[in-house]
Amino acid sequence: MYNNSNFNRWRRHPWHGLHTRSDGMPDDIVQVYIEMTTDDVVKYELDKSSGFLMVDRPQRTTSSPPALYGFIPRTYCAEEVAKRCADVDVADGDPLDICVWSERHITRADIVLKARVVGGIQMIDDGEADDKIVAVLEGDNIWGDVHDIADLPSIKVERLQHYFSTYKLVPGKEVNIKVDYVYGRDEALKVIAAAQKDYDNHFGHLHTQAKAKE
Protein backbone atom coordinates (compact mmCIF):
# COMPACT_ATOMS: atom_id res chain seq x y z
CA MET A 1 0.00 0.00 0.00
CA TYR A 2 1.22 3.52 -0.81
CA ASN A 3 2.56 5.43 2.19
CA ASN A 4 1.60 9.11 2.05
CA SER A 5 4.57 10.01 4.24
CA ASN A 6 6.83 9.31 1.24
CA PHE A 7 5.08 11.84 -0.97
CA ASN A 8 7.20 14.69 -2.37
CA ARG A 9 5.29 17.88 -3.07
CA TRP A 10 7.99 18.97 -5.47
CA ARG A 11 10.07 16.86 -7.81
CA ARG A 12 13.50 16.05 -6.43
CA HIS A 13 16.65 17.26 -8.18
CA PRO A 14 17.95 14.18 -10.07
CA TRP A 15 21.54 14.79 -9.00
CA HIS A 16 21.17 16.02 -5.42
CA GLY A 17 17.69 14.83 -4.45
CA LEU A 18 18.01 11.15 -5.31
CA HIS A 19 20.30 8.64 -3.61
CA THR A 20 23.10 6.56 -5.07
CA ARG A 21 21.35 3.48 -3.70
CA SER A 22 17.99 2.88 -2.08
CA ASP A 23 17.93 1.43 1.43
CA GLY A 24 18.76 -2.26 1.41
CA MET A 25 20.27 -2.27 -2.08
CA PRO A 26 23.35 -4.48 -2.62
CA ASP A 27 26.59 -2.59 -3.25
CA ASP A 28 26.57 -3.44 -6.95
CA ILE A 29 23.05 -2.07 -7.57
CA VAL A 30 22.78 1.70 -8.09
CA GLN A 31 20.11 4.15 -9.08
CA VAL A 32 20.62 5.80 -12.46
CA TYR A 33 19.17 8.94 -14.00
CA ILE A 34 18.98 8.48 -17.78
CA GLU A 35 19.84 11.47 -19.97
CA MET A 36 20.10 9.77 -23.38
CA THR A 37 18.66 6.74 -25.14
CA THR A 38 20.08 4.71 -27.99
CA ASP A 39 17.98 6.73 -30.45
CA ASP A 40 19.43 10.13 -29.55
CA VAL A 41 21.71 12.02 -31.93
CA VAL A 42 21.31 15.19 -29.85
CA LYS A 43 23.44 15.44 -26.69
CA TYR A 44 21.06 15.89 -23.77
CA GLU A 45 22.43 16.76 -20.35
CA LEU A 46 21.01 17.64 -16.95
CA ASP A 47 20.96 21.36 -16.24
CA LYS A 48 22.68 21.26 -12.86
CA SER A 49 20.99 24.41 -11.54
CA SER A 50 17.35 23.64 -12.37
CA GLY A 51 17.41 19.83 -12.50
CA PHE A 52 15.70 19.81 -15.91
CA LEU A 53 17.01 17.87 -18.89
CA MET A 54 18.28 20.27 -21.54
CA VAL A 55 19.75 20.19 -25.04
CA ASP A 56 23.52 20.47 -24.70
CA ARG A 57 24.34 20.27 -28.39
CA PRO A 58 23.29 18.51 -31.59
CA GLN A 59 25.85 15.83 -32.39
CA ARG A 60 27.99 16.53 -35.44
CA THR A 61 28.28 12.81 -36.17
CA THR A 62 25.54 10.34 -37.00
CA SER A 63 26.37 8.02 -34.09
CA SER A 64 24.09 7.49 -31.12
CA PRO A 65 24.92 5.89 -27.75
CA PRO A 66 24.96 2.09 -28.00
CA ALA A 67 23.48 1.85 -24.48
CA LEU A 68 21.35 3.98 -22.20
CA TYR A 69 23.49 6.87 -20.93
CA GLY A 70 23.17 8.88 -17.75
CA PHE A 71 24.72 9.37 -14.31
CA ILE A 72 24.68 8.05 -10.77
CA PRO A 73 23.05 10.49 -8.28
CA ARG A 74 25.15 12.02 -5.51
CA THR A 75 28.44 11.30 -7.22
CA TYR A 76 31.01 13.81 -8.42
CA CYS A 77 34.24 13.36 -10.33
CA ALA A 78 36.97 15.37 -8.64
CA GLU A 79 40.13 14.69 -6.63
CA GLU A 80 39.34 11.17 -5.41
CA VAL A 81 38.30 9.95 -8.85
CA ALA A 82 41.40 11.50 -10.41
CA LYS A 83 43.57 9.56 -7.95
CA ARG A 84 42.36 6.31 -9.52
CA CYS A 85 43.65 7.36 -12.94
CA ALA A 86 47.45 7.34 -13.07
CA ASP A 87 47.74 9.60 -16.13
CA VAL A 88 45.76 12.63 -14.94
CA ASP A 89 45.70 15.17 -12.12
CA VAL A 90 42.06 16.27 -12.41
CA ALA A 91 38.62 14.86 -13.21
CA ASP A 92 35.89 16.42 -15.33
CA GLY A 93 33.81 17.94 -12.50
CA ASP A 94 30.54 16.19 -13.40
CA PRO A 95 28.45 13.41 -11.86
CA LEU A 96 29.82 9.94 -12.59
CA ASP A 97 28.61 8.73 -16.00
CA ILE A 98 27.09 5.29 -16.47
CA CYS A 99 26.03 3.24 -19.49
CA VAL A 100 23.26 0.68 -18.99
CA TRP A 101 22.58 -2.27 -21.29
CA SER A 102 18.96 -3.36 -21.64
CA GLU A 103 17.52 -6.11 -23.82
CA ARG A 104 14.24 -4.23 -24.09
CA HIS A 105 14.32 -1.01 -26.08
CA ILE A 106 13.78 1.90 -23.67
CA THR A 107 12.73 4.89 -25.74
CA ARG A 108 12.56 7.77 -23.28
CA ALA A 109 15.05 9.63 -21.13
CA ASP A 110 14.47 11.68 -17.95
CA ILE A 111 13.72 8.46 -16.10
CA VAL A 112 15.24 6.67 -13.09
CA LEU A 113 16.15 2.99 -13.09
CA LYS A 114 18.13 0.47 -11.08
CA ALA A 115 21.20 -1.12 -12.63
CA ARG A 116 23.83 -3.68 -11.66
CA VAL A 117 27.40 -2.41 -11.97
CA VAL A 118 29.61 -4.81 -13.96
CA GLY A 119 32.67 -2.73 -14.85
CA GLY A 120 33.81 0.47 -16.47
CA ILE A 121 35.92 2.26 -19.06
CA GLN A 122 38.61 4.65 -17.89
CA MET A 123 38.11 7.52 -20.30
CA ILE A 124 40.60 10.40 -20.38
CA ASP A 125 39.17 13.41 -22.19
CA ASP A 126 41.66 16.19 -22.88
CA GLY A 127 43.67 15.30 -19.79
CA GLU A 128 40.68 14.85 -17.44
CA ALA A 129 39.37 11.64 -15.88
CA ASP A 130 35.89 10.99 -17.26
CA ASP A 131 35.13 7.37 -16.32
CA LYS A 132 32.16 5.56 -17.82
CA ILE A 133 30.68 2.93 -15.52
CA VAL A 134 29.14 -0.04 -17.37
CA ALA A 135 26.01 -1.70 -15.99
CA VAL A 136 23.03 -3.86 -16.89
CA LEU A 137 19.39 -3.15 -16.15
CA GLU A 138 18.35 -4.89 -12.95
CA GLY A 139 16.03 -7.79 -13.72
CA ASP A 140 16.81 -7.72 -17.44
CA ASN A 141 15.73 -10.98 -19.07
CA ILE A 142 18.91 -11.31 -21.14
CA TRP A 143 21.60 -9.42 -19.23
CA GLY A 144 20.18 -9.63 -15.71
CA ASP A 145 22.52 -12.45 -14.66
CA VAL A 146 25.69 -10.65 -15.78
CA HIS A 147 27.87 -9.71 -12.79
CA ASP A 148 31.16 -8.69 -14.39
CA ILE A 149 32.11 -7.00 -17.63
CA ALA A 150 33.97 -10.17 -18.69
CA ASP A 151 30.56 -11.87 -18.89
CA LEU A 152 29.36 -9.44 -21.57
CA PRO A 153 30.10 -10.09 -25.25
CA SER A 154 33.28 -8.15 -26.06
CA ILE A 155 31.51 -6.30 -28.88
CA LYS A 156 29.36 -4.54 -26.27
CA VAL A 157 32.41 -2.90 -24.72
CA GLU A 158 34.00 -2.23 -28.11
CA ARG A 159 30.92 -0.30 -29.22
CA LEU A 160 31.06 1.86 -26.10
CA GLN A 161 34.76 2.52 -26.65
CA HIS A 162 34.15 3.44 -30.27
CA TYR A 163 31.27 5.76 -29.41
CA PHE A 164 33.18 7.68 -26.75
CA SER A 165 36.34 7.89 -28.85
CA THR A 166 34.46 9.38 -31.81
CA TYR A 167 31.41 11.30 -30.55
CA LYS A 168 33.33 14.59 -30.35
CA LEU A 169 35.02 14.26 -33.72
CA VAL A 170 35.04 17.36 -35.91
CA PRO A 171 36.51 17.20 -39.43
CA GLY A 172 39.98 18.74 -39.49
CA LYS A 173 40.40 18.85 -35.71
CA GLU A 174 42.20 16.44 -33.41
CA VAL A 175 40.39 14.94 -30.42
CA ASN A 176 42.43 13.95 -27.38
CA ILE A 177 40.39 11.05 -25.96
CA LYS A 178 41.65 7.73 -24.59
CA VAL A 179 39.37 4.79 -23.83
CA ASP A 180 41.89 1.96 -23.77
CA TYR A 181 41.61 0.74 -20.18
CA VAL A 182 38.58 -1.43 -19.37
CA TYR A 183 38.09 -2.62 -15.78
CA GLY A 184 35.81 -5.05 -13.99
CA ARG A 185 33.20 -4.88 -11.25
CA ASP A 186 35.56 -4.51 -8.28
CA GLU A 187 37.38 -1.51 -9.71
CA ALA A 188 34.08 0.03 -10.85
CA LEU A 189 32.75 -0.11 -7.28
CA LYS A 190 35.92 1.63 -6.08
CA VAL A 191 35.46 4.37 -8.67
CA ILE A 192 31.86 4.85 -7.53
CA ALA A 193 33.00 5.03 -3.89
CA ALA A 194 35.60 7.64 -4.87
CA ALA A 195 32.92 9.66 -6.69
CA GLN A 196 30.66 9.46 -3.64
CA LYS A 197 33.50 10.74 -1.47
CA ASP A 198 34.12 13.60 -3.92
CA TYR A 199 30.41 14.42 -3.78
CA ASP A 200 30.42 14.47 0.03
CA ASN A 201 33.53 16.67 0.05
CA HIS A 202 32.08 19.20 -2.39
CA PHE A 203 28.32 19.05 -1.81
CA GLY A 204 27.76 17.31 1.53
CA HIS A 205 27.08 20.67 3.18
CA LEU A 206 23.91 21.03 1.10
CA HIS A 207 22.33 18.04 2.81
CA THR A 208 23.59 19.11 6.24
CA GLN A 209 21.93 22.51 5.77
CA ALA A 210 18.70 20.91 4.52
CA LYS A 211 18.47 18.65 7.57
CA ALA A 212 19.13 21.58 9.87
CA LYS A 213 16.09 23.40 8.42
CA GLU A 214 13.76 20.44 8.98
Number of helices: 3
**Globular, elongated, flat, extended or rod-shaped: what is the shape?**
globular
Rg computed from alpha carbons, rounded to a whole number of angstroms: 17 Å
- Name the helicity range: 10-25%
Number of domains: 1
Calculate the terminal CA-CA distance, rounded to whole Å: 26 Å
Mean pLDDT: 92
Can you count the beta strands? 10
CATH-level-2 architecture: Alpha-Beta Complex
CATH superfamily: Inorganic pyrophosphatase
Question: Main sheet: which strands, in order across?
Answer: 1-4-6-9-7
Strand content: 25-35%
| Biggest sheet features | 5 strands, mixed, barrel
Order of secondary-structure elements? EEEEHEEEEEHEH
Contiguous low-pLDDT stretches (5 residues minimum) are none
Give structural attributes.
single chain, 214 residues, alpha+beta, Inorganic Pyrophosphatase, five-stranded mixed beta barrel, two-stranded antiparallel ribbon, 22% helix
Textual characterization of the structure:
It is a single chain. The protein is an alpha+beta fold. It has a single domain, classed as Alpha-Beta Complex (Inorganic Pyrophosphatase). 22% of the residues lie in helices and 29% in strands. It has 3 helices and 10 strands. The chain has a 5-stranded mixed barrel.
